[in-house]
Specification:
Elements: E1 2-9, H1 15-28, E2 30-37, H2 39-52, E3 58-62, H3 66-71, E4 75-76, H4 80-85, E5 111-117, E6 119-123, H5 124-129, H6 141-153, E7 160-161, H7 168-180, H8 198-209, H9 223-231, E8 237-240, H10 252-256, E9 258-261, E10 269-277, H11 283-293, H12 296-306, E11 309-310, H13 313-316
Parallel strand pairs: 1-2, 1-3, 7-8
Antiparallel strand pairs: 3-10, 4-10, 5-10, 5-11, 6-8, 6-9
Helix pairs in contact: 7-8
Length: about 325
């Protein structure tokens, strides 16, 4: 029986994915060795695979890693025939294809799989106690700032909580403010840095300015610590991802009292792609695995465990968000 090695980005058990791969094995006669790679160490591991040409056949990778892995000639582009076998391109969230290739190349190097976007989570009861209408509380950057100020005036100890220790997620969060003010980080052609434009500076200033709504004891938190703070009911508003719903500290009572909305500005939309490594000696079976993993039904079933959303519109439309 043929065997593939598949790396998935995960910090927890993968019972759902294991069950799906057992289904794939029964259907296709292909065994898949699943290995979970923690997000924090995944980039270093992927670089080793690209350099030494040894490791998995198929991997889930962060969408922002694509350019570097292509530059190291580590992954294989998908042909037009490969793409046709994966279903209609129009069924995937359009913006995700932008990170699946390189500007101007015309090649596709990754297939969108899981979606990560920024969401505002808030305590309905604390907003109500402060006399804040949740329908108007987060409609603009100014409205968000006024909401946090009123919560602070109402003696809410932690109106706002976000991770502040060095983390990849800070740039994702910050993008909402930079793009929302008409700024960007690099030019479209990738040749000029735009950090110092007035628009980008306005986004930086407004985002980091919200730190005044975080008391000193929560100003040096990791992603996990910030999510746990909100999930313990200690903070009123946070910016996080869909994975927050799986936080073990969320009680049923608190969960029922949480509202969710998109942040103002231009939401960051990232996530992960599936890639086929250049060194794989079993390309045909690897493509079969990618076709299986990108079925709408499979995406829909796995995405809640991954704490993300499915990349296919047909799967997304059938996915319930708590």
């Amino acid at each position: 029986m043929a065997e593939l090695v598949f790396w998935v980005l995960s910090d927890s058990s993968n019972a759902v994915l294991e069950a799906l791969l057992a289904e794939f094995r029964a259907r296709m006669g292909i065994r898949v060795q699943l290995q979970s790679i923690p997000w924090e160490s995944a980039w270093n591991e992927m670089v080793k695979v690209a350099i030494y040409r040894n490791g998995p056949d198929v991997s889930e990778i962060g969408s922002t890693w694509m350019g570097d892995l292509v530059g190291m000639s580590g992954i294989r582009p998908f042909t037009a025939l490969d793409l046709r076998a994966l279903g209609p391109v129009q069924d995937y969230i359009p913006s995700l294809w932008q990170s699946a290739g390189l500007a101007g190349s015309g090649d596709i190097w990754g297939i969108p799989w899981m979606v990560d976007t920024r969401l505002l989570f808030y305590r309905r009861d604390l907003l109500a106690q402060a006399g804040i209408d949740e329908a108007e509380a987060f409609t603009s950057f100014t409205a968000l700032e006024k909401t946090l100020h009123r919560l602070q005036q109402a003696d809410v100890e932690i109106p706002w909580i976000i991770p502040t220790r060095r983390s990849w997620i800070t740039l994702h969060n910050l993008a909402v403010w930079v793009w929302g003010h008409g700024g960007d980080f690099v030019s479209i052609d990738g040749k000029r840095l735009l950090f110092n434009t007035p628009e980008a500076r306005a986004g930086f200033q407004e985002y980091f300015g919200l730190g005044r709504f975080m008391p000193p004891q929560v100003r040096d938190f990791t992603i996990i610590e910030a999510d746990d703070c909100f999930s313990h009911g200690q903070a009123a508003v946070t910016l996080s991802g869909a994975w927050l719903w799986d936080n073990p500290h969320l009680t049923p009572e608190l969960r029922a009292n949480i509202g969710v909305t998109l942040p103002p500005g231009v939401p960051y939309v990232g996530g992960s792609h599936l890639v086929l490594w250049e060194h794989s000696r079993n390309v045909r079976d690897a493509l079969k695995l990618i076709r299986f993993l990108t079925e709408a039904r499979v995406m829909q079933r796995y995405s809640p465990q991954a704490g993300k959303l499915p990349a296919r519109l047909s799967a997304l439309s059938e996915t319930s968000v708590p």
